[in-house]
Amino acid sequence: MVERTVTILNKKGLHTRPAATLVKTAAKFQSELSIRKDSLVINGKSIIGVMTLAAEQGSTLTLRLEGPDENEAAEALVDLFARKFDEE
Amino acid sequence: MDDAISAGQEIILKGIAAAPGIAFGPAYVYSKQVPVVREKSLTPDEVPVEIQRLRTANARADKELQKIHAFAEQKLGAQNAKIFEAQIMILADEILMGEIEKRITRELKNAEFIVADEISKYKRLMLAAPDEYMHERAHDVDDVMNRIIRNIQDQKLFSRLEGESIIISENLAPADTVIFSRNQILGYAMDLGGVTSHAAILSRSLKIPAVVGMRTATTTIRTGDSIAIDGYAGFLFVNPTEDTVRALVRKQQRFREFEERLVDIADLTADTQDRKHIELSANIEFVEEIAFARSQGTAGVGLFRTESQLIGRPDYPSEEEQYTAYKAVADGVFPHPVIFRTFDVGGDKLSPDSPHEANPFLGWRGIRVLLDRPELFLEQLRGILRASTQKNVRIMFPMVTTVQEIRQAKDLLLQAKKDLDSRGISYDKGIKIGVMIEVPAAAILAEQFAAEIDFLSIGTNDLIQYLLAVDRDNNAVASLYQQFNPAVLRTIKNVIDAGHKRGAWVGMCGEMAGDPLATVLLVGMGIDELSVAPIVLPEIKKVILSIRQKDAKRVAEKVLAMTHDQEIREYLSSVIRNKVPDIPLDLDQTTGP
Questions:
Q1: Are the beta carbons of B386 and B324 closer than 8 angstroms?
Q2: Cα dist. B490→A72, B391, B460, B475, B554 in Å?
Q3: Chain B partners within 8 Å of A46 (Cβ)
């Protein structure tokens, strides 16, 4: 199991488009992904779940990955957040 | 009311004409009712069938949404079609659907119950968030949930109905445009709404008759009732009598003949017979409307409502995004001019944490919001400036009340120009600017305003409401909204004179500009430009071509001496009948279109 903390850098937060990118990226890996924001935990491969996060710029999320490729998945996702989902 | 209808009696409903035309057909009452979800227990061997029902419903819902999305993209533009993408993605959410299927198996409950229960969880979380954007997403979630449930229940959707119908509905949100994706629609009637609503715009571009503001249509009419719709005068006839039908058919004939002749004048410029040129342009808000406006014979765009840039998105469009959109419009209209009106919205659209207003009509909107948010104003100004390289762009500021506001706006425009200079980006350095005259203070100070800018545009819709203290959507007083109220006419005359005194040209972009009854009067009062809904353009041009400004001036003098709205209407009707005898005017309208 691997846990990483990420921050939303995007000005517009995690709206529909980056949410879709996040889910698509997570889907490439076998590992389970759960995302926690404050007390809310959702499945990171579910678009409706990620939409519910309502994460605005500056908010911190905890990614938890569990599976055979958890390290690669973690790297890819952390990088995605750092790249602002290639939006800006 | 039920007795009357079942007894076959004719019922006449009056509302607002939104899109011209006459049609006859059966009603289809479209209601956005939440489907009733029933909880049923299953036996284990009923589970596989139930799961199949769910999957089939999901596939149907996806097909529906794909169609709506494609249609919305075509008719309302890619920007507006985006609002359906969230729903489409949710349908494809394997985790969500997988969980629903697992729960059906585990809890032995029927599909619609689990769907409602599971998806509602997410909906509630979204509604609990503070921002407007999440509430809109909650709407999407709600919509897709109901769509799945409706398909599970195998409810007869409109798509399965045979034949053509006249749609009766309470309201039409962009997400409801599904009913327009069928080509069997003869007409449309709405309980709420106004002539600038999406439904009206769509009806006009699809050239089907529409009436709005009917108030009681959905409660009076039932699916299957025989309906006649008069989109010229704003009437709906339930169980029309033979006499009514005959009269409407004759009216339809008259209008058709007139409209056919109008095609011939599309290419002519709107000059009076004594060669006074009137700039006749179009009011639009989507770049997709330009083609239709052109075919109707427009000289340009007298009002481009930029608010369309703000629809269905959680954030403010960037300078780059705005520039791209405005450039498309400017290029599409070239060589004719286009006037971009800066964002005319309530403060809540641009600043989600703004406090709730008890009286938004007298509140934080129009230029007030932009001047309080200069960083947003500058982005829009830069976007518009960059689109002005072909020198056919003008800028107009809404809801201006003081000279100081104009000066502040001009300062910001200068700042925007300097910014573009430092970035080496080109624009029209001599770009013309104007203001909307819609607040009474602006009408009174028109001369002072005219000294600051290049043109004035009279926004009669709001001006009349403020001047007469009437909310036109308030049924109790809607009849007091009088376009030809002497106070309104004198105000307009004063604005025109004041503008001219200071070398500014004066135009009109409110609904009054598109009322053929007012054309002679306005020309006589000296109006330089009329910007109208594309659908009425040919009619207005026909009037202009049929008169001399000399005569129009005398008409105006006579009217300005009158004291009664009704008297003025009757006189202007007789003038029009005289000058344009074949114009099929309705004299029995109690409130103007």
A1: no
A2: 75, 35, 13, 26, 15
A3: 93-96
- Are A11 and B315 inside 8 Å of each other by CB? yes
**Distance, in angstroms, between B422 CA and closest chain A CA?**
22
Closest residue, chain A, to B83 (C-alpha) = A16
Residue A57 catalytic? no
Give backbone dihedrals phi and psi of B207, rounded to 5 degrees, phi first. Answer: 55, 45
* H-only helix segments in B172-312: 198-206, 217-220, 242-262, 290-295
For residue B590, the model assigns a pLDDT of 35
Q: Is the pLDDT of residue B77 over 70?
A: no
Residue-wise pLDDT for B187-245, tens only, equals 889 988 665 566 666 677 667 899 988 988 988 898 889 999 999 888 999 999 999 99
Task: Map out the domains of chain A with their CATH numbers.
Answer: 2-86 (3.30.1340.10)
B:113-152 residues touching chain A, CB 8 A cutoff: 119, 122, 125-126, 129, 131, 133-134, 137, 141
Write the ipTM. 0.90
Average pLDDT score over residue span B276-285: 93
> Given an 8 Å threshold on Cβ–Cβ distance, is B137 in contact with A40?
no
Question: DSSP code of B310?
Answer: G
pLDDT value for B375: 93
The A-side interface with B (CB below 8 A) comprises: 11-13, 15-16, 20, 40, 43, 45-49, 51-52, 54, 56
Given a contact cutoff of 8 angstroms between Cβ atoms, the answer to whether B22 and B216 are in contact is: no
pTM score, whole prediction: 0.67
Out of B93, B129, B133, the one facing A47 most closely (by C-beta) is: B93
What single-letter amino acid sits at A70? Answer: E
Residue B348 has, within 13 A of its CA and on its CB side, a CA count of 11
B492, pLDDT greater than 60: yes
Rounded Cα distance, B260 and B250, in Å: 15
Residue B179 pLDDT: 58
Residues of chain A in contact with residue B314, where contact means CB-CB under 8 angstroms, are: 12-13, 15
Q: Exactly one of A12, A15, A37, A84 is catalytic; which is it?
A: A15
The answer to whether the CB atoms of A16 and B86 lie below 8 A apart is yes
In sequence order, which residues have a C-beta less than 8 Å from that of residue B273 and are 6 or more positions away? B545, B546, B547, B548
Q: What is the pLDDT of residues A43-81, one digit of tens each?
A: 999 999 999 987 888 999 999 999 999 999 999 999 999
Coil vs helix vs strand at B45: helix
Q: What is the mean pLDDT of chain B?
A: 87
**CA of B414 to nearest chain A CA: how many angstroms apart?**
27
Domains, chain B, in order of start with CATH, read 2-32+162-258 (3.50.30.10), 44-152 (1.10.274.10), 266-579 (3.20.20.60)
